[in-house]
């Protein structure tokens, strides 16, 4: 068996496929663990639209640290929705060290952000309630018998299968098999990433332009 697109039992099909492709009938209880480890691996390696999520938040006057959204892996775009004159404005990323060196104190419209531990630091410190929107890459939604499907498995069943088989053969201490599936996994990741990159820029010529928000 193999996962089929938009089936109501994708996770069940995936676990059956893992056992079938490995030709093992003695690892049924372990296979959900292999899938969980595969999801962690995929979340570190893949940056495609299926793993993107938009989240909005409101600042609090005088507060410049905010908890990262659930499942956060990496920011793609962060903006102030209601900037100067009500015009949206991108927030510029700086390293924590760069923000400290710049000594950007005071309050006002946020202009910069950084990531510190599990929080977003925004400077200058917001002087009022502002609306922020972050587009970020999230961890894959965990699969289980109570959550049979997610968009990543629907669109990339090969990546899930290969990553799970890496974990299975690593568990069995078979380096040759683990490396074999690792090569297939790497090719599937590369192909998915390349297809996503092409799709983002399809439909017209690319143009690069600067933006000014009149700080």
- What is the succession of H and E elements? HHEEEEEHEEEEEHHH
* Mean pLDDT over the residues: 87
How is the main sheet built? 4 strands, antiparallel
In percent, how helical is the residue content? 25-40%
Radius of gyration: 21 Å
Class based on secondary structure composition and strand pairing: alpha+beta
Lateral arrangement of strands in the main beta sheet: 1-10-3-4
Percent of sequence in beta strands: 15-25%
Characterize the quaternary organization of these chains: single chain
Number of helices: 6
* Poorly predicted runs: 206-215
Distance between the termini: 58 Å
Query: How many E strands?
Result: 10
C-alpha geometry: elongated
Q: Which structural traits does this protein have?
A:
single chain, alpha+beta, 4-stranded antiparallel sheet, 4-stranded mixed sheet, 6 helices
Report on this structure.
- This protein is an alpha+beta fold and 215 residues long.
- The chain is built from 6 helices and 10 strands.
- The protein has a 4-stranded antiparallel β-sheet, with no helix packed on it. Strands 2-8-7-5 form a 4-stranded mixed β-sheet, with no helix packed on it.
- Helix 5 runs antiparallel to helix 6 (175-200).
- The chain is elongated.
How are the SSEs placed, and which strands pair?
Layout lengths: L9 H13 L8 H15 L6 E7 L6 E3 L4 E9 L8 E2 L1 E2 L2 H7 L4 E2 L3 E5 L2 E5 L1 E2 L4 E8 L12 H5 L1 H15 L3 H26 L15
Parallel strand pairs: 5-7, 6-9
Antiparallel strand pairs: 1-10, 2-8, 3-4, 3-10, 7-8
Helix pairs in contact: 1-5, 2-5, 5-6
